[in-house]
Amino acid sequence: MKGLAAANKSAVRPRYLLFASLALLAIAPALVPTRYVLLLDHIGLAALVALGVVLLTGIGGLISLAHAGFVGVGAYVTAILTAQAGALPGGLAWLGGSPWLALLAGLLLTLLLAGLLGSLTVCLSSPYLAMCSIAWGVALPYAFGMLGGQDGIVGIPPIRIAGVALDTASRMYYLIWLVLLLGLWVQRNLLDSRQGRAMRALRGGRPMAEAMGVDSRWLRFVILLIAAAQACIAGWLYAHLQRHVDPAPFSLRAGLEYLIMTIVGGSAHVWGALLGAGIFTGAGLWLHDMLPRLRELAWLQGVGGGSGAYIGYGGLEIIVLALVALVVFLRWRDGLWPMLVRRLPLLREDGKVNMAAEPLPRRPLPPRGDIILEAVRVTRRFGGLLANRQIDLAIEAGSILALIGPPGAGKSTLLDLLSGIEAPTTGAIVFMGDSVAGCGARRVAAQGMSRSFQQAMLLGERSVLDNAALGAHLRGTHGIAACACHADRREEARLLAETTRQLERVGLGDCLHLPAASLPPGRQRLLEIARALAADPYLLLLDEPTAGLRAEEKQSLAALLGKLRADGMSILLADHDREFVMMLADQVLVMDAGAITARGTPAEVRHHPALLAAYTSTVP
Questions:
Q1: CB distance 515 to 463 below 8 Å
Q2: Distances from the Cα of 294 to the Cα of 98, 310, 314, 316, angstroms
Q3: Per-residue pLDDT reduced to its tens digit, 384-439
Q4: Are 537 and 360 within 8 A, CB to CB?
Q5: For residues 441 and 452, is the Cβ–Cβ distance under 8 A?
Q6: How sure is the predictor about 6, in pLDDT bands with cuts at 50, 70 and 90?
Q7: CA–CA separation, 78 and 84 (whole Å)
Q8: Angstrom distance (rounded) from CA 179 to CA 449
Q9: What contacts 313, CB < 8 A, 6 or more positions away?
Protein backbone atom coordinates (compact mmCIF):
# COMPACT_ATOMS: atom_id res chain seq x y z
CA MET A 1 0.00 0.00 0.00
CA LYS A 2 2.86 2.35 0.76
CA GLY A 3 4.33 1.71 -2.70
CA LEU A 4 0.97 2.46 -4.33
CA ALA A 5 0.60 5.69 -2.35
CA ALA A 6 4.09 6.78 -3.37
CA ALA A 7 3.27 6.08 -7.01
CA ASN A 8 0.08 8.13 -6.75
CA LYS A 9 1.98 11.02 -5.20
CA SER A 10 4.60 10.93 -7.94
CA ALA A 11 1.83 10.99 -10.55
CA VAL A 12 0.12 13.97 -8.91
CA ARG A 13 3.21 16.14 -8.51
CA PRO A 14 3.66 16.91 -12.24
CA ARG A 15 -0.01 17.93 -12.32
CA TYR A 16 0.50 20.41 -9.49
CA LEU A 17 3.59 21.73 -11.25
CA LEU A 18 1.57 22.22 -14.43
CA PHE A 19 -1.21 24.10 -12.62
CA ALA A 20 1.30 26.34 -10.87
CA SER A 21 3.01 27.09 -14.19
CA LEU A 22 -0.30 27.96 -15.85
CA ALA A 23 -1.21 30.28 -12.99
CA LEU A 24 2.15 32.02 -13.26
CA LEU A 25 1.73 32.41 -17.01
CA ALA A 26 -1.71 33.94 -16.51
CA ILE A 27 -0.44 36.72 -14.23
CA ALA A 28 2.95 37.25 -15.91
CA PRO A 29 1.96 40.44 -17.82
CA ALA A 30 1.02 42.11 -14.53
CA LEU A 31 4.33 41.17 -12.90
CA VAL A 32 6.98 42.07 -15.48
CA PRO A 33 7.75 45.20 -17.56
CA THR A 34 6.33 45.47 -21.07
CA ARG A 35 9.77 44.75 -22.53
CA TYR A 36 9.75 41.30 -20.96
CA VAL A 37 6.16 40.67 -21.92
CA LEU A 38 7.28 41.19 -25.52
CA LEU A 39 10.13 38.76 -24.87
CA LEU A 40 7.60 36.18 -23.64
CA ASP A 41 5.57 36.79 -26.80
CA HIS A 42 8.59 35.99 -28.94
CA ILE A 43 9.44 32.94 -26.84
CA GLY A 44 5.91 31.65 -27.40
CA LEU A 45 6.18 32.20 -31.16
CA ALA A 46 9.59 30.53 -31.37
CA ALA A 47 8.33 27.59 -29.29
CA LEU A 48 5.37 27.12 -31.62
CA VAL A 49 7.73 26.82 -34.59
CA ALA A 50 10.11 24.61 -32.58
CA LEU A 51 7.21 22.25 -31.84
CA GLY A 52 7.04 21.51 -35.55
CA VAL A 53 10.80 20.95 -35.67
CA VAL A 54 10.48 18.50 -32.75
CA LEU A 55 7.90 16.53 -34.71
CA LEU A 56 9.87 16.67 -37.93
CA THR A 57 13.44 16.16 -36.70
CA GLY A 58 13.35 14.74 -33.18
CA ILE A 59 10.42 12.38 -33.77
CA GLY A 60 10.43 11.66 -37.50
CA GLY A 61 14.21 11.83 -38.01
CA LEU A 62 13.85 14.35 -40.87
CA ILE A 63 15.84 17.56 -41.19
CA SER A 64 14.35 20.65 -42.79
CA LEU A 65 15.67 24.22 -42.77
CA ALA A 66 12.62 25.63 -44.54
CA HIS A 67 10.62 26.28 -41.39
CA ALA A 68 11.38 29.99 -41.26
CA GLY A 69 10.07 30.19 -44.83
CA PHE A 70 6.75 28.68 -43.77
CA VAL A 71 6.61 31.22 -40.92
CA GLY A 72 7.05 33.86 -43.59
CA VAL A 73 4.21 32.45 -45.67
CA GLY A 74 1.82 32.84 -42.76
CA ALA A 75 3.09 36.36 -42.02
CA TYR A 76 3.03 37.64 -45.60
CA VAL A 77 -0.35 36.17 -46.51
CA THR A 78 -2.03 37.91 -43.56
CA ALA A 79 -0.06 41.11 -44.22
CA ILE A 80 -1.17 41.26 -47.85
CA LEU A 81 -4.78 40.28 -47.19
CA THR A 82 -5.25 42.71 -44.30
CA ALA A 83 -2.89 45.65 -44.82
CA GLN A 84 -3.20 45.71 -48.61
CA ALA A 85 -6.81 44.68 -48.96
CA GLY A 86 -7.54 47.55 -51.32
CA ALA A 87 -5.03 46.30 -53.85
CA LEU A 88 -6.49 42.81 -54.05
CA PRO A 89 -8.08 41.64 -57.31
CA GLY A 90 -11.87 41.64 -57.38
CA GLY A 91 -12.13 37.89 -56.85
CA LEU A 92 -10.13 38.12 -53.62
CA ALA A 93 -11.65 41.31 -52.25
CA TRP A 94 -13.95 39.36 -49.91
CA LEU A 95 -10.83 38.12 -48.04
CA GLY A 96 -9.59 41.61 -47.33
CA GLY A 97 -9.47 42.91 -43.79
CA SER A 98 -10.19 39.68 -41.90
CA PRO A 99 -7.21 38.18 -40.04
CA TRP A 100 -9.15 34.96 -39.56
CA LEU A 101 -9.76 34.47 -43.27
CA ALA A 102 -6.13 35.42 -43.82
CA LEU A 103 -5.10 32.66 -41.41
CA LEU A 104 -7.18 30.16 -43.36
CA ALA A 105 -5.69 31.33 -46.66
CA GLY A 106 -2.18 31.17 -45.21
CA LEU A 107 -2.72 27.62 -43.97
CA LEU A 108 -4.04 26.50 -47.34
CA LEU A 109 -1.07 28.01 -49.18
CA THR A 110 1.39 26.61 -46.64
CA LEU A 111 -0.07 23.12 -46.90
CA LEU A 112 0.09 23.38 -50.69
CA LEU A 113 3.76 24.40 -50.61
CA ALA A 114 4.65 21.83 -47.95
CA GLY A 115 2.79 19.18 -49.91
CA LEU A 116 4.80 20.07 -53.00
CA LEU A 117 8.05 19.86 -51.02
CA GLY A 118 6.94 16.59 -49.45
CA SER A 119 5.90 15.02 -52.75
CA LEU A 120 9.38 15.71 -54.12
CA THR A 121 11.31 14.47 -51.08
CA VAL A 122 9.15 12.09 -49.03
CA CYS A 123 10.66 9.02 -50.71
CA LEU A 124 14.19 10.27 -50.16
CA SER A 125 16.41 9.96 -47.12
CA SER A 126 16.74 12.83 -44.67
CA PRO A 127 19.87 14.44 -46.22
CA TYR A 128 18.01 14.97 -49.49
CA LEU A 129 15.11 16.61 -47.68
CA ALA A 130 17.61 18.88 -45.91
CA MET A 131 19.20 19.90 -49.20
CA CYS A 132 15.84 20.56 -50.85
CA SER A 133 14.74 22.57 -47.81
CA ILE A 134 17.85 24.76 -48.12
CA ALA A 135 16.84 25.68 -51.65
CA TRP A 136 13.30 26.29 -50.39
CA GLY A 137 14.57 28.44 -47.52
CA VAL A 138 16.64 30.57 -49.89
CA ALA A 139 13.89 31.02 -52.49
CA LEU A 140 11.01 32.02 -50.20
CA PRO A 141 12.66 35.19 -48.73
CA TYR A 142 13.34 36.38 -52.30
CA ALA A 143 9.66 35.85 -53.08
CA PHE A 144 8.71 37.82 -49.96
CA GLY A 145 10.97 40.68 -51.09
CA MET A 146 9.26 40.73 -54.48
CA LEU A 147 5.82 40.81 -52.87
CA GLY A 148 6.41 43.55 -50.32
CA GLY A 149 9.80 45.03 -51.10
CA GLN A 150 12.85 44.84 -48.86
CA ASP A 151 11.30 47.37 -46.48
CA GLY A 152 8.35 45.07 -45.99
CA ILE A 153 4.65 45.70 -45.40
CA VAL A 154 3.40 48.05 -42.69
CA GLY A 155 0.00 48.91 -41.29
CA ILE A 156 -1.11 45.37 -40.43
CA PRO A 157 -4.27 45.73 -38.33
CA PRO A 158 -4.56 44.05 -34.93
CA ILE A 159 -6.56 40.89 -34.39
CA ARG A 160 -9.96 41.49 -32.79
CA ILE A 161 -11.68 39.03 -30.48
CA ALA A 162 -15.18 39.84 -29.21
CA GLY A 163 -14.64 43.45 -30.26
CA VAL A 164 -11.38 43.82 -28.31
CA ALA A 165 -8.35 44.81 -30.36
CA LEU A 166 -5.20 42.86 -29.46
CA ASP A 167 -3.06 45.90 -30.16
CA THR A 168 -0.48 45.61 -27.36
CA ALA A 169 2.15 43.07 -26.40
CA SER A 170 0.20 42.22 -23.25
CA ARG A 171 -3.02 41.53 -25.13
CA MET A 172 -1.29 39.46 -27.82
CA TYR A 173 0.50 37.57 -25.07
CA TYR A 174 -2.67 35.71 -24.07
CA LEU A 175 -3.53 34.69 -27.63
CA ILE A 176 0.03 33.58 -28.40
CA TRP A 177 0.34 31.47 -25.28
CA LEU A 178 -3.16 30.07 -25.61
CA VAL A 179 -2.28 28.86 -29.13
CA LEU A 180 1.07 27.52 -27.89
CA LEU A 181 -0.49 25.63 -24.98
CA LEU A 182 -3.10 24.18 -27.33
CA GLY A 183 -0.29 23.09 -29.65
CA LEU A 184 1.59 21.51 -26.76
CA TRP A 185 -1.53 19.63 -25.63
CA VAL A 186 -2.34 18.39 -29.13
CA GLN A 187 1.22 17.29 -29.87
CA ARG A 188 1.60 15.51 -26.53
CA ASN A 189 -1.66 13.67 -27.19
CA LEU A 190 -0.48 12.69 -30.64
CA LEU A 191 2.89 11.41 -29.48
CA ASP A 192 1.27 9.49 -26.61
CA SER A 193 -0.64 7.26 -29.02
CA ARG A 194 -0.23 4.51 -31.58
CA GLN A 195 0.26 7.14 -34.29
CA GLY A 196 2.96 8.83 -32.21
CA ARG A 197 4.76 5.51 -31.77
CA ALA A 198 4.57 4.98 -35.51
CA MET A 199 6.12 8.42 -36.06
CA ARG A 200 8.95 7.65 -33.66
CA ALA A 201 9.54 4.34 -35.45
CA LEU A 202 10.71 6.29 -38.50
CA ARG A 203 13.96 6.97 -36.63
CA GLY A 204 14.44 3.24 -36.03
CA GLY A 205 14.71 2.52 -39.74
CA ARG A 206 12.14 2.17 -42.49
CA PRO A 207 12.38 -1.67 -42.70
CA MET A 208 11.48 -2.03 -39.02
CA ALA A 209 8.65 0.49 -39.25
CA GLU A 210 7.14 -1.10 -42.35
CA ALA A 211 7.45 -4.59 -40.86
CA MET A 212 5.30 -3.39 -37.95
CA GLY A 213 2.66 -2.15 -40.40
CA VAL A 214 3.60 1.55 -40.39
CA ASP A 215 3.01 3.48 -43.60
CA SER A 216 6.31 5.34 -43.37
CA ARG A 217 5.90 7.33 -46.57
CA TRP A 218 2.48 8.69 -45.59
CA LEU A 219 3.60 9.49 -42.06
CA ARG A 220 6.64 11.44 -43.28
CA PHE A 221 4.31 13.46 -45.48
CA VAL A 222 1.83 14.11 -42.64
CA ILE A 223 4.62 15.15 -40.25
CA LEU A 224 5.87 17.70 -42.76
CA LEU A 225 2.36 19.12 -43.21
CA ILE A 226 1.74 19.42 -39.46
CA ALA A 227 5.09 21.09 -38.83
CA ALA A 228 4.55 23.55 -41.69
CA ALA A 229 1.05 24.42 -40.43
CA GLN A 230 2.40 25.19 -36.96
CA ALA A 231 5.04 27.46 -38.48
CA CYS A 232 2.37 29.24 -40.55
CA ILE A 233 0.25 29.93 -37.46
CA ALA A 234 3.33 31.34 -35.71
CA GLY A 235 3.92 33.63 -38.71
CA TRP A 236 0.32 34.84 -38.61
CA LEU A 237 0.64 35.70 -34.92
CA TYR A 238 4.03 37.36 -35.50
CA ALA A 239 2.65 39.64 -38.21
CA HIS A 240 -0.19 40.89 -36.00
CA LEU A 241 2.15 41.32 -33.04
CA GLN A 242 4.74 43.35 -34.96
CA ARG A 243 2.21 45.04 -37.28
CA HIS A 244 5.00 45.00 -39.86
CA VAL A 245 6.78 42.26 -41.83
CA ASP A 246 9.93 42.18 -43.94
CA PRO A 247 11.97 39.27 -45.37
CA ALA A 248 14.80 39.29 -42.78
CA PRO A 249 13.17 37.14 -40.02
CA PHE A 250 12.33 34.38 -42.51
CA SER A 251 15.78 33.70 -43.92
CA LEU A 252 17.68 30.43 -44.07
CA ARG A 253 19.64 31.54 -41.01
CA ALA A 254 16.40 31.80 -39.04
CA GLY A 255 15.54 28.23 -40.09
CA LEU A 256 18.91 27.09 -38.77
CA GLU A 257 18.24 28.91 -35.48
CA TYR A 258 14.94 27.09 -35.04
CA LEU A 259 16.72 23.77 -35.58
CA ILE A 260 19.49 24.65 -33.10
CA MET A 261 17.11 25.83 -30.38
CA THR A 262 15.11 22.63 -30.71
CA ILE A 263 18.16 20.39 -30.44
CA VAL A 264 19.45 22.39 -27.45
CA GLY A 265 16.15 21.98 -25.63
CA GLY A 266 15.71 18.33 -26.56
CA SER A 267 14.70 17.53 -30.11
CA ALA A 268 12.61 14.47 -29.25
CA HIS A 269 10.65 16.13 -26.44
CA VAL A 270 7.65 18.46 -26.63
CA TRP A 271 8.77 20.43 -23.57
CA GLY A 272 12.24 20.66 -25.09
CA ALA A 273 10.81 22.98 -27.74
CA LEU A 274 9.65 25.42 -25.08
CA LEU A 275 12.89 25.16 -23.09
CA GLY A 276 15.08 25.65 -26.16
CA ALA A 277 13.00 28.59 -27.40
CA GLY A 278 13.20 30.25 -23.97
CA ILE A 279 16.96 29.83 -23.69
CA PHE A 280 17.70 30.83 -27.27
CA THR A 281 15.36 33.85 -27.36
CA GLY A 282 16.38 35.03 -23.89
CA ALA A 283 20.06 34.69 -24.75
CA GLY A 284 19.44 36.69 -27.91
CA LEU A 285 17.96 39.56 -25.89
CA TRP A 286 20.86 39.44 -23.43
CA LEU A 287 23.39 39.57 -26.27
CA HIS A 288 21.49 42.45 -27.84
CA ASP A 289 21.94 44.38 -24.59
CA MET A 290 25.57 43.39 -24.06
CA LEU A 291 27.05 43.73 -27.53
CA PRO A 292 26.93 47.56 -27.73
CA ARG A 293 29.24 47.59 -24.71
CA LEU A 294 31.48 44.90 -26.14
CA ARG A 295 31.85 46.80 -29.38
CA GLU A 296 33.72 49.47 -27.51
CA LEU A 297 36.45 47.00 -26.53
CA ALA A 298 39.67 47.06 -28.52
CA TRP A 299 39.54 43.37 -29.39
CA LEU A 300 36.43 43.97 -31.48
CA GLN A 301 38.08 46.75 -33.50
CA GLY A 302 39.34 46.07 -37.01
CA VAL A 303 43.07 45.73 -37.57
CA GLY A 304 43.08 48.53 -40.15
CA GLY A 305 44.71 51.17 -37.95
CA GLY A 306 41.69 52.26 -35.91
CA SER A 307 39.32 52.23 -38.82
CA GLY A 308 36.46 51.60 -36.44
CA ALA A 309 35.37 48.42 -38.21
CA TYR A 310 33.81 45.80 -35.95
CA ILE A 311 32.03 42.52 -36.09
CA GLY A 312 28.34 43.16 -36.69
CA TYR A 313 25.77 42.31 -34.05
CA GLY A 314 24.07 39.62 -36.09
CA GLY A 315 27.35 37.87 -36.95
CA LEU A 316 28.63 37.84 -33.38
CA GLU A 317 25.26 36.77 -32.00
CA ILE A 318 25.08 33.67 -34.16
CA ILE A 319 28.72 32.82 -33.35
CA VAL A 320 28.11 33.02 -29.59
CA LEU A 321 24.86 31.07 -29.75
CA ALA A 322 26.46 28.42 -31.97
CA LEU A 323 29.28 27.99 -29.45
CA VAL A 324 26.77 27.63 -26.62
CA ALA A 325 24.85 25.05 -28.66
CA LEU A 326 28.09 23.16 -29.34
CA VAL A 327 28.84 22.96 -25.62
CA VAL A 328 25.34 21.61 -24.97
CA PHE A 329 25.67 19.02 -27.74
CA LEU A 330 28.98 17.78 -26.38
CA ARG A 331 27.80 17.63 -22.77
CA TRP A 332 24.15 16.56 -23.20
CA ARG A 333 23.67 15.03 -26.62
CA ASP A 334 19.93 14.51 -26.16
CA GLY A 335 19.38 18.15 -25.12
CA LEU A 336 18.70 19.90 -21.85
CA TRP A 337 15.17 18.65 -21.16
CA PRO A 338 16.13 14.94 -20.86
CA MET A 339 18.97 15.98 -18.56
CA LEU A 340 16.53 17.89 -16.34
CA VAL A 341 14.13 14.94 -16.27
CA ARG A 342 16.92 12.61 -15.17
CA ARG A 343 17.93 14.97 -12.36
CA LEU A 344 14.46 16.06 -11.29
CA PRO A 345 12.15 13.05 -10.74
CA LEU A 346 9.32 15.58 -10.32
CA LEU A 347 9.28 15.99 -14.11
CA ARG A 348 9.13 12.28 -14.81
CA GLU A 349 5.88 10.89 -16.18
CA ASP A 350 5.63 7.10 -16.21
CA GLY A 351 2.12 6.26 -17.33
CA LYS A 352 0.18 3.45 -15.72
CA VAL A 353 -1.12 0.48 -17.67
CA ASN A 354 -4.75 -0.42 -17.10
CA MET A 355 -4.59 -4.20 -17.09
CA ALA A 356 -8.38 -4.33 -16.63
CA ALA A 357 -8.89 -2.92 -20.14
CA GLU A 358 -10.98 -5.00 -22.50
CA PRO A 359 -8.79 -7.54 -24.36
CA LEU A 360 -8.14 -7.00 -28.05
CA PRO A 361 -9.75 -9.40 -30.53
CA ARG A 362 -7.52 -12.29 -31.63
CA ARG A 363 -6.99 -13.70 -35.11
CA PRO A 364 -8.57 -17.13 -35.61
CA LEU A 365 -5.58 -19.42 -36.22
CA PRO A 366 -5.73 -21.72 -39.26
CA PRO A 367 -6.21 -25.46 -38.73
CA ARG A 368 -3.04 -27.25 -37.68
CA GLY A 369 -1.28 -28.78 -40.68
CA ASP A 370 -2.54 -26.28 -43.28
CA ILE A 371 0.16 -24.71 -45.46
CA ILE A 372 0.22 -21.01 -44.54
CA LEU A 373 3.44 -19.93 -46.30
CA GLU A 374 4.98 -21.37 -49.43
CA ALA A 375 8.00 -20.20 -51.40
CA VAL A 376 8.64 -21.63 -54.86
CA ARG A 377 12.01 -21.30 -56.64
CA VAL A 378 12.75 -17.97 -54.95
CA THR A 379 15.95 -16.28 -56.12
CA ARG A 380 17.42 -12.94 -55.08
CA ARG A 381 20.31 -11.21 -56.81
CA PHE A 382 22.13 -8.07 -55.66
CA GLY A 383 24.04 -7.11 -58.77
CA GLY A 384 26.44 -9.97 -59.37
CA LEU A 385 25.84 -11.50 -55.94
CA LEU A 386 23.43 -14.43 -55.75
CA ALA A 387 22.13 -14.13 -52.18
CA ASN A 388 19.36 -16.77 -52.48
CA ARG A 389 18.95 -19.30 -55.25
CA GLN A 390 16.04 -21.56 -56.10
CA ILE A 391 14.59 -21.67 -52.57
CA ASP A 392 11.60 -23.96 -52.01
CA LEU A 393 9.93 -24.21 -48.61
CA ALA A 394 6.52 -24.64 -47.01
CA ILE A 395 5.39 -23.91 -43.45
CA GLU A 396 2.50 -25.73 -41.81
CA ALA A 397 0.22 -24.11 -39.26
CA GLY A 398 1.20 -24.93 -35.68
CA SER A 399 4.75 -26.01 -36.53
CA ILE A 400 8.30 -24.71 -36.19
CA LEU A 401 10.44 -24.65 -39.33
CA ALA A 402 14.11 -23.86 -38.76
CA LEU A 403 16.72 -22.45 -41.13
CA ILE A 404 20.18 -23.35 -39.98
CA GLY A 405 23.51 -22.40 -41.44
CA PRO A 406 26.63 -20.36 -40.77
CA PRO A 407 26.72 -16.54 -40.95
CA GLY A 408 26.48 -15.42 -44.58
CA ALA A 409 24.45 -18.43 -45.68
CA GLY A 410 21.55 -16.22 -46.81
CA LYS A 411 19.12 -16.85 -43.95
CA SER A 412 18.41 -13.17 -43.16
CA THR A 413 17.99 -12.32 -46.84
CA LEU A 414 15.42 -15.09 -47.17
CA LEU A 415 13.50 -13.77 -44.18
CA ASP A 416 13.55 -10.30 -45.76
CA LEU A 417 12.06 -11.78 -48.94
CA LEU A 418 9.36 -13.69 -47.09
CA SER A 419 8.37 -10.68 -44.95
CA GLY A 420 8.21 -8.26 -47.88
CA ILE A 421 11.18 -6.07 -46.98
CA GLU A 422 12.92 -7.20 -50.17
CA ALA A 423 11.38 -8.36 -53.43
CA PRO A 424 12.61 -11.61 -55.00
CA THR A 425 14.31 -11.41 -58.39
CA THR A 426 12.38 -14.48 -59.49
CA GLY A 427 10.04 -16.94 -57.83
CA ALA A 428 6.70 -16.93 -56.02
CA ILE A 429 5.74 -16.43 -52.36
CA VAL A 430 2.22 -17.26 -51.17
CA PHE A 431 1.06 -16.37 -47.63
CA MET A 432 -2.39 -17.24 -46.32
CA GLY A 433 -3.51 -17.97 -49.88
CA ASP A 434 -2.35 -14.65 -51.37
CA SER A 435 0.69 -13.92 -53.51
CA VAL A 436 2.88 -11.50 -51.55
CA ALA A 437 6.14 -11.49 -53.51
CA GLY A 438 7.28 -7.88 -53.81
CA CYS A 439 4.09 -6.42 -52.30
CA GLY A 440 5.89 -4.70 -49.40
CA ALA A 441 6.38 -5.41 -45.72
CA ARG A 442 3.35 -3.41 -44.61
CA ARG A 443 0.90 -5.55 -46.58
CA VAL A 444 2.55 -8.76 -45.38
CA ALA A 445 2.34 -7.53 -41.78
CA ALA A 446 -1.35 -6.71 -42.24
CA GLN A 447 -1.97 -10.28 -43.40
CA GLY A 448 -0.55 -11.72 -40.18
CA MET A 449 3.22 -12.08 -40.39
CA SER A 450 5.48 -10.50 -37.77
CA ARG A 451 9.21 -10.72 -37.22
CA SER A 452 12.37 -9.89 -35.32
CA PHE A 453 15.65 -8.79 -36.92
CA GLN A 454 19.19 -10.09 -37.00
CA GLN A 455 20.43 -6.82 -35.49
CA ALA A 456 17.96 -5.60 -32.88
CA MET A 457 16.06 -2.62 -34.30
CA LEU A 458 14.81 -0.70 -31.28
CA LEU A 459 14.31 2.90 -30.25
CA GLY A 460 16.92 2.93 -27.52
CA GLU A 461 15.79 6.07 -25.73
CA ARG A 462 12.16 4.97 -25.60
CA SER A 463 10.76 2.67 -22.93
CA VAL A 464 10.47 -1.08 -23.23
CA LEU A 465 6.68 -0.69 -23.26
CA ASP A 466 6.74 1.87 -26.07
CA ASN A 467 8.99 -0.32 -28.21
CA ALA A 468 6.87 -3.41 -27.77
CA ALA A 469 3.57 -1.53 -28.30
CA LEU A 470 4.69 -0.65 -31.81
CA GLY A 471 4.04 -4.27 -32.72
CA ALA A 472 0.33 -3.76 -31.98
CA HIS A 473 0.10 -0.82 -34.41
CA LEU A 474 -2.18 -2.57 -36.88
CA ARG A 475 -4.53 -3.68 -34.10
CA GLY A 476 -5.60 -0.06 -33.54
CA THR A 477 -7.85 1.98 -35.80
CA HIS A 478 -7.72 5.63 -34.66
CA GLY A 479 -6.17 8.15 -37.03
CA ILE A 480 -4.05 11.26 -36.57
CA ALA A 481 -6.92 13.61 -35.71
CA ALA A 482 -8.51 11.28 -33.14
CA CYS A 483 -5.17 10.69 -31.43
CA ALA A 484 -4.39 14.42 -31.36
CA CYS A 485 -7.73 15.13 -29.68
CA HIS A 486 -7.27 12.33 -27.12
CA ALA A 487 -10.26 10.42 -28.48
CA ASP A 488 -8.26 7.18 -28.55
CA ARG A 489 -7.84 6.60 -24.81
CA ARG A 490 -9.97 3.45 -24.60
CA GLU A 491 -8.21 1.84 -27.54
CA GLU A 492 -4.80 2.96 -26.26
CA ALA A 493 -5.47 1.32 -22.89
CA ARG A 494 -6.32 -1.94 -24.66
CA LEU A 495 -3.17 -1.80 -26.80
CA LEU A 496 -0.90 -1.15 -23.81
CA ALA A 497 -2.53 -3.86 -21.73
CA GLU A 498 -2.05 -6.40 -24.52
CA THR A 499 1.57 -5.29 -24.96
CA THR A 500 2.22 -5.64 -21.24
CA ARG A 501 0.90 -9.19 -21.32
CA GLN A 502 3.31 -10.06 -24.13
CA LEU A 503 6.22 -8.49 -22.25
CA GLU A 504 5.34 -10.54 -19.18
CA ARG A 505 5.12 -13.57 -21.43
CA VAL A 506 8.79 -13.20 -22.47
CA GLY A 507 9.98 -12.26 -18.98
CA LEU A 508 10.22 -8.47 -19.36
CA GLY A 509 7.29 -7.48 -17.19
CA ASP A 510 9.63 -6.01 -14.57
CA CYS A 511 11.13 -3.32 -16.81
CA LEU A 512 8.22 -1.73 -18.67
CA HIS A 513 9.38 1.85 -18.19
CA LEU A 514 13.13 1.36 -18.55
CA PRO A 515 14.81 2.66 -21.73
CA ALA A 516 15.25 -0.13 -24.25
CA ALA A 517 18.95 0.74 -24.58
CA SER A 518 19.47 -0.08 -20.88
CA LEU A 519 18.65 -3.76 -21.47
CA PRO A 520 21.48 -6.21 -22.11
CA PRO A 521 21.64 -7.59 -25.69
CA GLY A 522 19.91 -10.84 -24.79
CA ARG A 523 16.91 -9.09 -23.26
CA GLN A 524 16.72 -6.76 -26.25
CA ARG A 525 16.18 -9.90 -28.33
CA LEU A 526 13.31 -10.85 -26.06
CA LEU A 527 11.89 -7.35 -26.43
CA GLU A 528 11.82 -7.76 -30.20
CA ILE A 529 9.98 -11.06 -29.80
CA ALA A 530 7.42 -9.41 -27.49
CA ARG A 531 6.95 -6.66 -30.08
CA ALA A 532 6.32 -9.26 -32.76
CA LEU A 533 3.88 -11.17 -30.55
CA ALA A 534 1.93 -7.96 -29.85
CA ALA A 535 0.85 -8.06 -33.50
CA ASP A 536 -1.04 -11.35 -32.86
CA PRO A 537 0.48 -12.96 -35.98
CA TYR A 538 -0.30 -16.19 -37.79
CA LEU A 539 3.40 -16.62 -38.52
CA LEU A 540 6.34 -15.47 -36.41
CA LEU A 541 9.71 -14.98 -38.14
CA LEU A 542 12.70 -14.95 -35.78
CA ASP A 543 16.12 -13.97 -37.10
CA GLU A 544 18.98 -15.19 -34.85
CA PRO A 545 16.85 -15.01 -31.67
CA THR A 546 19.49 -16.72 -29.52
CA ALA A 547 22.26 -14.21 -30.25
CA GLY A 548 23.43 -12.72 -26.96
CA LEU A 549 21.26 -15.01 -24.80
CA ARG A 550 22.67 -16.87 -21.81
CA ALA A 551 22.03 -20.57 -21.38
CA GLU A 552 19.09 -20.09 -18.99
CA GLU A 553 17.59 -17.44 -21.32
CA LYS A 554 17.82 -19.89 -24.22
CA GLN A 555 15.94 -22.47 -22.18
CA SER A 556 13.23 -19.92 -21.34
CA LEU A 557 12.98 -18.92 -25.01
CA ALA A 558 12.70 -22.55 -26.07
CA ALA A 559 9.90 -23.07 -23.55
CA LEU A 560 8.11 -19.97 -24.84
CA LEU A 561 8.37 -21.04 -28.49
CA GLY A 562 7.16 -24.50 -27.58
CA LYS A 563 4.15 -22.99 -25.82
CA LEU A 564 3.39 -20.80 -28.85
CA ARG A 565 3.50 -23.85 -31.11
CA ALA A 566 1.19 -25.72 -28.77
CA ASP A 567 -1.25 -22.80 -28.98
CA GLY A 568 -1.28 -23.12 -32.79
CA MET A 569 1.18 -20.39 -33.86
CA SER A 570 3.56 -21.08 -36.73
CA ILE A 571 7.22 -20.11 -36.39
CA LEU A 572 10.04 -19.76 -38.91
CA LEU A 573 13.29 -19.74 -36.98
CA ALA A 574 16.64 -18.75 -38.55
CA ASP A 575 19.64 -19.42 -36.33
CA HIS A 576 23.15 -20.81 -36.38
CA ASP A 577 22.86 -22.42 -32.92
CA ARG A 578 22.47 -26.07 -33.94
CA GLU A 579 21.63 -27.47 -30.51
CA PHE A 580 18.88 -24.91 -29.91
CA VAL A 581 17.36 -25.59 -33.33
CA MET A 582 17.56 -29.36 -33.09
CA MET A 583 15.72 -29.56 -29.75
CA LEU A 584 12.90 -27.32 -30.93
CA ALA A 585 12.16 -27.57 -34.67
CA ASP A 586 9.74 -29.90 -36.42
CA GLN A 587 11.55 -29.52 -39.73
CA VAL A 588 15.07 -28.21 -40.43
CA LEU A 589 16.43 -26.66 -43.63
CA VAL A 590 20.21 -26.40 -43.97
CA MET A 591 21.36 -23.31 -45.88
CA ASP A 592 24.79 -22.76 -47.37
CA ALA A 593 25.90 -20.16 -49.91
CA GLY A 594 22.32 -19.01 -50.49
CA ALA A 595 20.86 -22.44 -51.27
CA ILE A 596 19.09 -25.16 -49.30
CA THR A 597 21.43 -28.14 -49.20
CA ALA A 598 19.48 -30.48 -46.90
CA ARG A 599 16.05 -30.76 -45.32
CA GLY A 600 14.30 -33.07 -42.93
CA THR A 601 13.54 -33.70 -39.27
CA PRO A 602 16.18 -32.80 -36.67
CA ALA A 603 17.13 -36.48 -36.39
CA GLU A 604 17.59 -36.73 -40.18
CA VAL A 605 19.58 -33.52 -40.51
CA ARG A 606 21.76 -33.76 -37.39
CA HIS A 607 24.37 -36.00 -39.04
CA HIS A 608 23.75 -35.02 -42.67
CA PRO A 609 26.95 -34.35 -44.67
CA ALA A 610 25.52 -31.04 -45.89
CA LEU A 611 25.28 -29.73 -42.32
CA LEU A 612 28.90 -30.61 -41.67
CA ALA A 613 29.93 -29.04 -44.98
CA ALA A 614 28.07 -25.80 -44.17
CA TYR A 615 29.94 -25.34 -40.91
CA THR A 616 33.36 -26.50 -42.16
CA SER A 617 33.25 -24.83 -45.60
CA THR A 618 33.80 -28.17 -47.33
CA VAL A 619 31.87 -29.55 -50.28
CA PRO A 620 29.32 -32.16 -49.23
A1: yes
A2: 45, 10, 13, 11
A3: 889 999 999 999 999 999 999 888 889 999 999 999 999 999 999 999 999 999 89
A4: no
A5: no
A6: very low
A7: 9
A8: 43
A9: 287, 288, 291
